[in-house]
Design a protein that fits this description.
With 127 residues, the chain is mainly β. Helices cover 0% and strands 48% of the residues. The strands form two sheets. Strands 2, 4, 5, 6, 9, 10 and 11 form a seven-stranded mixed β-sheet that branches. It is globular and about 40 Å long.
Amino acid sequence: QVQLVESGGGLVQAGDSLRLSCAAAGGTFSTYTMGWFRQAPGKDREFAASISWNGRSTNYADSVKGRFTISRDNAKNTVYLQMNNLKPEDTAAYYCAADRTSFYDSTRTQVGHMHYWGKGTLVTVSS
């Protein structure tokens, strides 16, 4: 069983930056595609970013492209989401997820594609 624990959320102002972390325990982290999703109040959970097992391939939702950067450190079993130039519309609970599929497929952006989930960390961006 894989446990994912997010941290780094908080209350910031528009234009600020935050870095989210997700620490994994159990399983084989270094073989998983990792993703970040987010869910705003009253809305469905949506894809934000994903990264291949070796960190060489990434994919971003259009809404965050150019502002967010996903990265990973397999030695630390941790994936990160650097969020710059935050906007009020980025306010959401952010969830880390793991896809244990053995190959990276950037089209795997649906909630149902992920096998393991963290409990989320809240990001609030004030205007």
